[in-house]
């Protein structure tokens, strides 16, 4: 027992030492930054301030430009012609090809509405697949819902059904955000190597089984075109 106690004490000391070392490094960095600021003359500080202000102004202008192009809200576009116009004027576009009769499209709508407000750098659209046969043919869209991820006017990637989202109707907005981050269609601040749905895998699976029986009182097929 004494040996065990001793090793616990040693471990505790090691940990305390680690924490102290880390704190010391952080403090030293802060001191260095403060010293740098102290040594700056008025002109240098003014210059730094101006650069900050310019960066803020630029960010604000960029935001206004995005808003004027219809970013910041999840919108339905009426026709295929609109699709080409919309993707031409924005660098990053997510377009949801949906169908009124497909329940899973409503699930997708809910998450996209949230993400459109959060990721103002990307344009979020929806288009009725039945009203856009030419586009569906050209983009080979066979499964509803499908998200077409368009960068610089070119379709780079697709989110087909819920397969990439943990294969459950109960996926979170964070999971879809992670998937869009993987495609580099939004500015994603999380860790791409750590998909949010991994931690809720068990929960998700049991939910899918339950949902299949309860949606509209009939067994709901996978995201196929003939549902």
UniProtKB/TrEMBL annotation:
The keyword Ribosomal protein does not apply. Its main location: cytoplasm. The keyword Cytoplasm applies. Forms ternary complexes with the chaperonin TCP1 complex, spanning the cylindrical chaperonin cavity and contacting at least 2 subunits. It comes from Fulmarus glacialis (Northern fulmar). SUPFAM superfamilies: Thioredoxin-like. Keywords: Cytoplasm, Cytoskeleton, Nucleus, Phosphoprotein. It is found in: Cytoplasm, Cytoskeleton, Microtubule organizing center, Centrosome; Midbody; Nucleus. InterPro entries: Thioredoxin-like_sf, Thioredoxin_domain. Pfam families: Thioredoxin (PF00085). PROSITE patterns: THIOREDOXIN_2. Significantly diminishes the chaperonin TCP1 complex ATPase activity, thus negatively impacts protein folding, including that of actin or tubulin. This is Thioredoxin domain-containing protein 9. The lineage of its organism: Eukaryota, Metazoa, Chordata, Craniata, Vertebrata. GO terms for cellular component: centrosome; cytoplasm; midbody; nucleus. Residues 53-181 form the Thioredoxin domain.
């Amino acid at each position: 027992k004494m040996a065990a106690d001793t090793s616990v004490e040693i471990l505790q000391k090691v940990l305390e030492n680690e924490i102290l070392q880390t704190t010391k490094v952080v403090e030293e960095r802060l001191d260095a930054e403060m010293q740098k600021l102290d040594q700056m003359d008025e002109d240098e500080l003014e210059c730094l301030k101006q650069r900050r202000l310019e960066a803020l102004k630029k960010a604000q202008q960029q935001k206004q430009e995005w808003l004027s192009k219809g970013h910041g809200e999840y919108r339905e576009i009426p026709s295929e012609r609109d699709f080409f116009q919309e993707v031409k004027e924005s660098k990053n576009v997510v377009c949801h090809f949906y169908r009124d009769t497909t329940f899973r499209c409503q699930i997708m709508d809910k998450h996209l509405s949230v993400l459109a407000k959060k990721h103002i750098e990307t344009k979020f659209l929806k288009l009725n697949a039945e009203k856009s046969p030419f586009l569906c043919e050209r983009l080979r869209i066979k499964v509803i819902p499908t998200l077409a991820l368009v960068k610089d006017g070119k379709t780079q990637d697709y989110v087909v059904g819920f397969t990439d989202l943990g294969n459950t109707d109960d996926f979170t907005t964070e999971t879809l955000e992670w998937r869009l981050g993987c495609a580099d269609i939004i500015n994603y601040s999380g860790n791409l190597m750590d998909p949010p749905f991994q931690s809720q895998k068990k929960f998700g699976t049991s939910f899918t089984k339950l949902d299949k029986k309860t949606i509209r009182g009939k067994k709901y097929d996978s995201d196929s075109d003939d549902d």
